[in-house]
Amino acid sequence: MRRQSLTLWLTLMVLSCMLTTTAAAQDVSPATKIELDPLLVQAELQRVEGIARAMPSAVSVFVPGGGGGGSGVLISPDGYALTNFHVSSPAGTFMRCGLSDGQIYDAVIVGIDPVGDLALIRLLGRDDFPFAQMGNSLSAQVGDWCMVIGNPFLLASNLQPTVTWGILSGVGRYQYPSGTLLEYGDCLQTDASINPGNSGGPLYDASGKLLGIVGRASFEKRGRVNVGVGYAISVQQAKNFLGALRSGRIVDHATLGATVATDPDGGARISNVLESSDAYRRGLRYGAEILEIDGRTVRTANEVQKVLATLPSGWRVNVRYRSDGETRERLVRLMGVHGEDELLEKMAAALPPPPPRPDPPPAGRPDSPDDPDSKEGPDIPGGLEKMREAEEGGQAPVLPQLKVRDKKLPEAVAAQLIERKGFANYFYNEQKQRALFESLKDQMITENQSSDRSWVISGVTNSEPAIPFRCEMGEGKLVWTLGNEKTEFADRSELYDAINRQSTASVVAAMDGLRRLLDQGTKKFGEIYYWGTMPLGGQRPLRDCLVGNDGELELRWMTHPDTRRLEVMEVFADLDLDPLEVWFQYQAVDSRELSKPVGFEVRFGTESRLSLRVQSWGVEEPDAVNPSVSDATIRSGIDLAGVFDETN
Amino acid sequence: MKRIDPQRPLGGPAMIAITLATLFISLLGEQTRADSPLVRLSRDSQKRVVKIYGAGGLSGLEAYQSGFLVSPDGHIATAWSYVLDVEPIVLLDDGRRFEAEIIGFEPALELAVLKIDAGDLPYFPFGKSDDVQWGDPVLAVSNLFNIATGEEPASVMQGTIASVSRLNARSGTLKTPYNGTVYILDLVANNPGAAGGALVDLSGQLVGMLGKELRDAETGVWLNYAIPAEATKGIIGDIIAGRLTTKVDTEQPSLPRERAHSALTLGMDLVPDVLEATPVFVDSVHRDGAGWRAGLRPDDLILLVNGKRVESQRVMRQVLRTIDRRDDVQITVQRENQILPLTLRP
């Protein structure tokens, strides 16, 4: 219906243009049928199609209680939508979202990235939401046609979003942080109209694919209206953060741990590097020229900053650099821009002080009313408006007709919300933890276990000659045997020292962590959280990462998103030193079936220290006695020796 | 305002719509993407636009603006403004940075021409550009808001020419010395830093230079406009060809003090010369002196003396020393928003 009328309108517009010209130029009777150039018709039809494709995924966000609002865009059928942090922030945990189908849906906060100004929310009530197809912002070029669909000035009171059209005026723009947060590191610039209320909404390419998340505009003396310059966070950056946002966490951005300056003769050179950084450990020193980060070429300090700004803290990426005339490529773990508490403090500082509350606080859920870390409730008006002053696209001013009285969260929202320090919404973290834990269990546990069982993993090294190894883990018993060398660990602090010393015997720390996680579950293990997704060894696809704190040790499990296999475990002792890494190998690389590893490799830094072939991976009952390594009779183990015979 | 040219049978909006349609369609085809004409046109234009950094940076005055190359040898056209109160720094699209010299200045056009020491540069040649009319689609390429950090290329915006008009149509409400023909743009082109940017048509031809920010004093409306290339091409051509320069010739010998001109011989006092570069403001005019007879007034700012730019009183004295005090002196002054040529006869 709408499409037809749009076409009609465009045709009419073109017709009237043609009439004006031709009537003046020649003597044409008005009854003559006008032949439209087929090219023109085709172009307009394509534009209409592009808009029709894009429109359903655009979201109009309203902060309940008249706290303003903004825009958003659906990215999955189960209701996940991206918006700006500065749009979701005044709402706190709950907002109402309108779609062009005329329906209003409740939405709950999922994860936030205050530095990158992104927030992931989830619309509730359907599992067949229309969603945007992701485009490729890296190949976007200046001069490309694009469109912005959203809720400028909160005009979408009838839930019909506004479409504005233009071109990309710039790509790979760096826009300085506004205050201390909201850095637009590698953004797209467009002349499609962006006004307050467009924030958080989609920038689409001409065919309706998502290119970016609108969030900012250059406003100056002309007031808070479009002056032809709007910015959108690239969809590339959003993709990098999506996994971390789905974890329900408050996500930080990455830094190299080094400062970089553009050399007058060309090239981005290290001007300072923190000795505690992984960059330093990987050989980056003063004067080294950085050539590539995460596969993207960098030639200036500006480009280095741009690439880093699109990466989450904690990612490990490939860095290619030239030092002393030699080009090297190294995996570098990126540091956070902020300490965890620092980021929370900055967020708190960025929020306006809560206005006086005449009414007593609503009878909230039992877990949150007195929680000092709970976000400002949906009844706080004004939002971040003041903080953003000159620069931000912002949510639109408060509209009185949007005021709603009820301050209670809808049930569906409350059921998907757990507030906890450091998290935007811990509910989603728990969901992911559980899913990942189940994957690990499916893979590693093949029979019923008693809770106090021990593990014994044994096999041989992949060296010539092969040396037998044995790894024994039980409560109070951690033994590593390689050939004739036996290392026993009395407690965790010995493991801590062994990892810092880069002793390969510390591999039992990883194996024991895995054993205890599977044995005790996520609740009993200690502090466990789902980190999100990150590359493995600098490579995509992004792997799911579960983190557990076991006393002084931090353990990480990284699993493949498709095969669900545990691929790498990392154990950090001193956070300023290289962790222990255990890289697992599997028999059938492409198989969808979960199976135990057939081998693993112990690494520190980027060096492989020990490569092992597993012959037996088993659970040992508490009373079992298994004195010697050569005696490979483990009762409930799986013998993989045969498998090796085949492959060798 | 609205002008339909019968000489252009396929001109006007219909043609434009088709041109735009062509641009649009070729863009959607994935295989032709890299060759999309609008992308190519944008890129080609960006290469010819430069960023200019100079004076400012205080009380809301931006220390940057835009310019564009008009010769392969480093001639750059830009808007005349306070940014050029110091010798400006020019950043090319390729990231190279140059100290530039101001070699040409036409106050009535708010135009300045800079020169950098470089060669083989991409540039906008001045072609036939007098057939521009309302409805023509255009791109505006500039460094508005100084968005293009470091080596980033200039910003490209699209729109149309809304009308071809004269700025003095509403005399007095737009405070600018330029009162010739302008292109009014349906495009928010004139933002801080955009002045001196290039306006190009869809064939890549330069059609105008983005003007300085201009606000209607009565309505408060900001104007989006460009000065036609047609209006500036003559003077720019003369400057490039070396026929014209406002640069003071330091080689020219000074005459003995008693034989040369000075402020006194022209019948004026200047404001006290207390700065390193005190602007040449007239403080008082001597009754019946040369200045008086020519209509010079206190508070006039002297910009040019015999066609040479006098950016400071020191330069003014230097120039006057080369002129025989028996000769006439041509000066160009700015009086509020007017640019006036005056002939001072001793």
Helices and strands in order:
The complex is a heterodimer of chains A (648) and B (346).
Chain A (H helix, E strand, L loop, with lengths): L1 H24 L12 H17 L3 E5 L6 E6 L5 E4 L1 H7 L2 E5 L5 E10 L4 E6 L21 E6 L11 E14 L8 E7 L11 E4 L4 E8 L12 E5 H12 L7 E2 L2 E5 L5 E6 L4 H4 L7 E5 L2 E2 L3 H9 L6 E8 L2 E8 L1 E2 L3 H11 L34 H4 L22 H4 L11 H19 L9 E8 L6 E7 L2 E6 L2 E5 L2 H9 L6 H19 L1 E10 L2 E12 L2 E7 L6 E7 L7 E6 L13 E6 L2 E14 L17 E2 L1 H7 L1
Antiparallel strand pairs in A: 1-2, 1-4, 2-3, 3-6, 4-5, 5-6, 7-8, 7-10, 8-9, 9-12, 10-11, 11-12, 13-20, 14-15, 15-16, 16-17, 16-18, 18-19, 21-22, 21-31, 22-23, 23-24, 25-26, 26-27, 27-28, 28-29, 29-30, 30-31, 31-32
Chain B lengths: L11 H17 L8 H12 E5 L10 E6 L5 E5 L9 E3 L5 E3 L1 E6 L4 E5 L21 E6 L12 E12 L14 E6 L11 E4 L4 E5 L3 E2 L6 E2 L1 E4 H13 L26 E3 L11 E4 L4 H5 L6 E5 L2 E2 L3 H8 L8 E7 L2 E7 L2
Q: What does this 3D model show about the protein?
A:
- The complex is a heterodimer of chains A (648) and B (346).
- Chain A is of the alpha+beta class.
- Chain A contains 13 helices and 32 strands.
- In chain A, strands 21, 22, 23, 24, 25, 26, 27, 28, 29, 30, 31 and 32 form a 12-stranded antiparallel beta sheet that branches. A 6-stranded antiparallel barrel of chain A has the order 1-2-3-6-5-4. Chain A has a 6-stranded antiparallel beta barrel with strand order 7-8-9-12-11-10.
- In chain A, a hairpin with a 5-residue loop joins strand 4 (94-98) and strand 5 (104-113).
- The longest helix of chain A has 24 residues, at 2-25.
- Chain A is globular, with a radius of gyration of 28 Å.
- In chain A, 50% of the residues are buried.
- Chain B has 5 helices and 21 strands.
- Chain B has helices spanning 12-28, 37-48, 229-241, 290-294, 313-320, and strands spanning 49-53, 64-69, 75-79, 89-91, 97-99, 101-106, 111-115, 137-142, 155-166, 181-186, 198-201, 206-210, 214-215, 222-223, 225-228, 268-270, 282-285, 301-305, 308-309, 329-335, 338-344.
- Chain B is α+β, with helices and mostly antiparallel strands and 346 residues long.
- At the A-B interface, helix 1, helix 2 and strand 8 of A face helix 1, helix 2 and strand 9 of B.
